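[Solved] Which block belongs to which protein?

Original post:
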Amino acid sequence: MSCKQPHVLSIQSHVVSGYVGNKSATFPLQLLGFDVDTINSVQLSNHTGYKVFKGQVLNDQDLICDPVLGDNGHMYVPEELKNIYKNDILPLADIITPNQFELELLTGLTIKTMSELKEAIKVLHSKGPKIVAVSSTDIENKLTSVTSVSKDNTMIKIEVPRIPAIYTGSGDLFAALLLAHTYLEDDIKISLEKTINTLFEVLEKTYHHSLTIKEANAQQAKKIELRLIQSKKNIENPNILLRAVNF
């Protein structure tokens, strides 16, 4: 474990209400002992899953890179930026945390099997990143998180039970937790286990809370805002029930 005081510059979206982007990452990082400085790539009233949202977006004079490419089949950034991520940003990164859709965008590969996932990860390693952590994959009817370390050719995975909802901000939380735990731990297996178990506990707590909301006019997006503050103890000391295995 490193003794140096960790300090993070987090460049992500910001919402006034709710938990995505910097709002999803800052609190967990601070709980785990990190000083966090933030630059907000956008500032919105709430995330775009709501019926109404308003706010501002930084232009290319202020920022040229938001770390989130897209999810669930559509891009969050203009199509013309894809090659900048592939050719300019990837070689600069030590750790990258794509979801399955982003992994396909960055490699140009279609991923339907675990062997195709392995090949795509190798492509990303060849472009520079030492650690590739695929936050979530839905392959062969299993929800799985996979992390690979190029230095010693380690590749591990954790299968995650499904929770019947789609959460906004969970990928941002995954990236923040993995960053923290790869810094604090010497073992990538422990880092991934702490990351996934924390994330699963937060999502499970959020899901069960959503079932208690009975207001007829409550938006689904509001019901499933991440219960981060209520998960303080889980973030600081997660229960390790889901285990990583080599593959």
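(Second protein starts here: sequence line, then its structure tokens.)
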Amino acid sequence: MKAPRRPIYAVITWLRRQPPKVKAFLAVVAGMATLVLLRAIIHDHDNLFVAAEAVHSIGISVLIFKLMKDKTCDGLSLKSQELTAMFLAVRLYCSFVMEYDMHTLLDLATLATTLWVIYMIRFNLKSSGMEDKDSFPLYYVVVPCAFLALLIHPTTSHHIANRICWAFCVYLEAVSVLPQLHVMQNTKIIEPFTAHYVFALGIARFLSCAHWVLQVLDSRGHLLIALGHGLWPSMVLISEIVQTFILADFCYYYVQSVFGGQLVLRLPYGAV
């Protein structure tokens, strides 16, 4: 007699059969439901931002463990790590000159570990690099982000150069994972540690996006005024949402793979 399937497997099977528009609609509904739940159980929504930074740090720790254990950087994008170090360095500068607080220390720790990952990939494990797969040109994202920061930045009382730097790190963070997704799209088969790292980034981005959305709702829009006037407040929210949706497709396949009992994630054509 055939054993009955677990409910979670039945749900996943049903989801696989749905057209893309239905999946997108269900993803939006699930995201909204999660926001409602987070708003109900977490009273200080600043904790969501701290949690996002903590999850990012955990993801970096997973990378370091992979590099030290497997002695290979197979599947990792050096360019994505360089973009991460770039926006973290700019954000640290902005934190020191504009709003030094606990987040500054968290960013400092994350930057230090990211630089360590870059060092290991560039020097210790250079022979196992994937330069042919990691071919995403950095100027494709750095130049547009810099240009956008010149046009749209905060209208606060800080020096214009600091405000442009702040905008630049917000925009660059939103697209810093693109080279990593490009590598995974080229390889199609993703080993567990890399998958865990990118999934951690997805969770961190969702928590950060939830933080901003809930802060705006709780302040009844006053937070947007505090961020400045013009297009900048909207661009902050758009950047957070873009980060979340860039990683949403990968996170879907990651969860599907975990519940399916697969150790290695295989992406279908066109994913991420």
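Accepted answer:
You had them paired correctly. Confirming on the second one: The chain has eleven helices and two strands.
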